[in-house]
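2024-03-11 09:14:02 INFO receiving multi-entity request
2024-03-11 09:14:02 INFO entity count = two
2024-03-11 09:14:03 INFO echoing inputs for audit
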Amino acid sequence: MALLEVSDLTVTYRTAGGDVPAVRGVSFALDAGQKLGLAGESGCGKSTMALALLRLLPKTARLTGEIRFDGEDLLTMSWGRLRAVRWAGASIVFQGAMHSLNAVQRIGAQIAEPIRLHSRAGEAAARKRAGELLEHVGLPARRADAYPHELSGGQRQRVMIAMALACDPKLIVADEPTTALDVMIQAQILTLIESLVAEQGISLLMISHDLSVLADTCDRLAVMYAGRIVEEGPAAAVFGAARHPYGQALAAAFPRIGDPASRRRPQGLAGDPPDPAELPPGCAFHPRCAVRLDHCDAVDPSLWPAGSGEGARAACVRVLPDDGLSLVPAAKESA
Amino acid sequence: MSESIQSAPILSAEDVHVEFEARRGGGRARAVDGVNLDIAPGEIVALVGESGCGKTTLARTLLGLERPTSGRVLHRGAPLAYTSKALKRFRRDVQLVLQDPSGSLNPRHTVYDAVAEGLRIHGDVPDERERVADALSRAGLRPPERFFLRFPHELSGGQRQRVVIAGALVLEPNVIVADEPVASLDASVRGEILALLLRLRDDLGLAALVVTHDLGLAWNIADRVAVMYLGRIVETGPVEKILTAPEHPYTQALLSVLPEAPGSPVVLQGEPPDPTRIPSGCRFHLRCPVLASSAAAAAGVDDACRGTDPGVLAGGTATQVACHYAVSLAPSEQSP
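2024-03-11 09:21:47 INFO inference complete, emitting structure
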């Protein structure tokens, strides 16, 4: 059974200007011990997804669908139960550790807090465990007395990871865990995350704009665009041979050094990601799509088996039999 | 392209040192510690390195925003004069493009005012409207008139970066210095901005120094790359050579940790050292994987690594590496 199973999740923000759909029907499953990468650009809904998983969204967000974690529905769970699941069941590593840590509290105390609250451990035992966790993420235990500003960006991100591990969760959600870090520090943090996840059999949902990092770290990848998953499958298949034109464009945007095809040929997409409040009709990607067909503004295809590898799917009419023409509403077809 | 690279440099650093007083009485930080760098007309040079390596300080010095503690900056072969009049003239020719366009545009200025500002400062008012329109369309904002009265918040990130580039282009410079020009942009938009920089070089012969931590960006657009570590350029040469067959262990490590890189990653431990305490000998030796393995000792250079500074690389376009070990492997070709 999957550890995490998201079915037809939608998240809509109510704003003064009307309802803004941020996540528009997302389904995926994550098995125990598996690493899933969720890729996408600003505004595609990937961070909203991360927050939705632990019901951390603001009150203005309306959710529908189902999020089953370890067999329980998170969306209908009582607050008390939810508090127990947060940290001990699933924990989050946020981007920007500087803003996620308390600036006026020593890091050891910050790591010890969830341990005290969740395991009813005494003050001394929690402190001791915090020291062990710091060692575990590659920081000396004596750094427990440091304040966040005394640490470098990479060290702060290590502290975030130590906190996420504090209550032995089954799932870690990492939202852009290495954004804004230098390549060498990024490599240190990714190596750390990979080894911890493998050692302790934790499932990982890693969210990033960087498809190449996800492809390197995760078993499976899902690419989001305008609140939908438009492509998913084994990491190598999605990064190396995407079937959705957006998946292809995103993969091509990360040049492989040494590849003559990308030398002096930066690859980008014309236009910008759509405003979630004003999505184009039909396939939300069609205005930027280089291979769109006439009926792409009338059909919004769902994920369909495509490409190589187990469970590889793409949401594009081009992978459908008959280019999805049968899905065109009659009015458009006759026009 | 090859003939333009042969011609006399348009902008050079000549043994530039920039030191700062460290914040808490920790001595002096040698942010740039001896750099020679030449940029030829029409050439795109990528200056790569990690945070704190001095790349941004070097770029600011080349723009005349920072005065070198010693050494000098040459513009078309003449030393840069630091009078406000001379700097003003200099900046018509050498323009800065900042990262994070949301921070570098005034939110209360329209696109038109943002682009026209440079012209007004330089007193080029007569044909202002045409020149603003021309700069905007060169930067890919077409038709330009549609953007004149827009405010930054009404634009996407990619469009804002194009406005910043248009603001640099309006004075018709010959060189732009771009500090992380696409770091804050989405991946799909980034390629378009990089393509724009390439097109500007091809159409206008614009030279560029692109400061970045992103080696993929260098592969995408640069002719030449200079790798900086702790205040020095440690390896430089044509992109094809340096990024596919690097000789400096630092460059090798940087490339090895990129996702999709072949072979196993060489992850350097610890943080880059502090520019107030630059190690003696080779400044990289404390983190050097070649010295840590027995390879440097086998080549008989380990004492040199610990005790002898490999020296400052010369300017020009030749392939060079500041590493005792690399030089010992190919003594005839390498002479830093």
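2024-03-11 09:21:48 INFO post-check: Chain A has eleven helices and twelve strands.
2024-03-11 09:21:48 INFO post-check: The longest strand of chain A covers residues 18-30.
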